[in-house]
Amino acid sequence: AKQDGRGVFRFYEAEMGAEVRDRRLLEHDLRNAIVRGELSIAYQPQVEVQTGDVVGFEALLRWRHPARGAVSPAIFVPVAEESGLILPLGEWVLRAACREAAGWKALLSVAVNVSAVQLHAPGFPELVGAVLAETGLDPERLEIEITETALIKDVARAVAVLERIRSIGVRIAMDDFGTGYSSLANLRAFPFSKIKVDRSFIQSVDTNPQSAAIVRAVLGLGSGLDVPVVAEGVERPEELAFLRGEICQSAQGYLLARPSPIEMFADITSGHITR
Ligand code: C2E
Ligand code: CA
Ligand code: CA
Ligand code: CA
Q1: Ligand 1 atom closest to Cα of residue 145
Q2: H or E stretch including 130?
Q3: ipTM for the complex shown
Q4: Where is the EAL domain (predicted)?
């Protein structure tokens, strides 16, 4: 009902009451978050499974609300997408992450999450190009993470946009792989350079034979397509041990490192150590 236009939205507002009002308040506060300096980025290392070397970082948006404290992106990103605020927010993350990575001595990659709304907004490939030029980051070091739901809206247009971005040299990762409706079809239709296997498959890889078989199949798919696979949300040593036994290129997760302010990883970004 939320997407049915303003009249319908108002109709439901009376019924839903508190929840809708809360979203409105959140949206109002989010509108000011950039100028008030309430946004920051937490960086989570992406680690090569066999060596333990850090090969890059994923940029994860953080919002510290003056009264509510930390608000999860799982809460405010949907609000931002619905209101269109994801456009300035997403641009802020992209620019901040590229600027940050351009300053690292170690030539590691940086992965930025991009929402469907951004992908389909006019001029998105141009924006990516402009931010790279402005920050001086080598396009090969930028990776854009897209979930499958971002792709169902207008497939032909999404393909064209992703191909333009790839033609600049930027890599494209399919996020949350396996959770969408047509993962395999998407893999064939879009120019992906990386597959990120969703945490839901990883977390039971050592206890559930189905999960293990699925993860093995995705790893096989990756090697057949010559597309590296990243395991998301690795929390336990058993999960990492499983991945080590297979051909999994890299992993991310609390076991390896929690998303943190980039200063926590100064030894890595300065190139002094790799893990
Ligand atoms: P995602 O892109 O799938 O990011 C992975 C999420 O899993 C992050 O949650 C990360 O903190 C969390 N995570 C990492 N390792 C582990 C682990 O071992 N165990 C568990 N349980 N979780 C782990 P976070 O930071 O709360 O972000 C949630 C989602 O919000 C992201 O999911 C992404 O879809 C979205 N998001 C975050 N930042 C941005 C952004 O800048 N732009 C857009 N469009 N979306 C963003
Ligand atoms: Ca992601
Ligand atoms: Ca993910
Ligand atoms: Ca996700």
Answers
A1: 2
A2: helix 124-135
A3: 0.98
A4: 23-273
For residues 231-241, b (16+ Cβ closer than 10 Å) or e, as one string?
bbbbebeebbe
Residues above pLDDT 90, as percent of the chain: 81
Mutation to probe ligand 1, out of 46, 60, 98, 174 (largest number of atoms < 8 A from CB): 60
Task: Supply the pTM of this predicted model.
Answer: 0.93
Q: Could you tell me the two tokens for 201?
A: 């498959």
Residue 107, both tokens: 């030539």
- Name the 3-class secondary structure at 215: helix
- CB of 47 closer than 8 Å to CB of 231: no
Other Cβ atoms less than 10 A from the Cβ of 109: the count is 18
Residue 130, C-beta contacts closer than 8 angstroms, at least 6 positions apart: none
Determine the Cα–Cα distance for residues 129 and 140; give it in Å rounded to an integer.
12
88 lines ligand 1 (CB under 6 A): no
pLDDT digits (tens, 9 = 90+) for 45-55: 999 999 999 99
